[in-house]
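Quarterly update from the structural biology core.
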Amino acid sequence: MRRVGWTVVALVVLAILVGPELAPHTATAPVAPPYSPPGVGGPLGTDHLGRDVFSRLLHGGRPMLLTSVVAALVGSGIGVLAGLFTALATPGRSRFVLRPLDVLAAVPPILVLLLVLTALPDRTGLVLAVALSGVPLSARVTRAAAEQVVGRAHVEVAVARGESWAWLLGREVLPLVAGTVLADLGLRFVTAVYLVAAAGFLGLSTSASDWGLLIVEALPGAALQPWALLAPVLGIALVAVTANLGSDGLAQRSRSVLG
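Predicted structure, tokenized:
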């Protein structure tokens, strides 16, 4: 089952990355009458402007995947550093880091998305907004996991030796919480996919074939051409499921290696 899961993950990622090169048409070119059924304008039919839904789906997958990956890595990376630091720091220093994160966690992710993209209406702003939304939870998860190991003998010995913070965090604590960090990274990625799609749904994406944009454009004609709506919805769901499979596999492997 693990091999099957990794095979599915690899196939989905490969299909998304090479999708624009495999698309039979561009993302903006009309190829058939609007709302054509599957088989007339393409395997999934056409949208309200006569564009090939299958081609638009292939063109929109790669930017969504790369944006979500970068945002998840940035947000999780900052959160892991904050969580490890607060697990080892004094209560006063921990509060200095955690209180701003608590304030950020109280702001709905969609509001963070809107505020940041208003100031930075480009791909960088989208990555920043999605990353900021994931930092508080990632920090809390990492801190909870790290607090279970900071009191172990090898950590206390390293502190007594006078090891640096970088050594303590990177060599003594992080390897023991790697499984939790990887599992949380998978959740951050899934959340990033949803937020990137939400940005497209709200018309804030910079891609002309963003899957969220495909969903909102297909809603008025869903009764005439349901595949124009179902295709991006199922695509987002497939990416989320495969991401969870991949993160669970990495987490189990890390735990078995460390165990």
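The first helix runs from residue 2 to 17.
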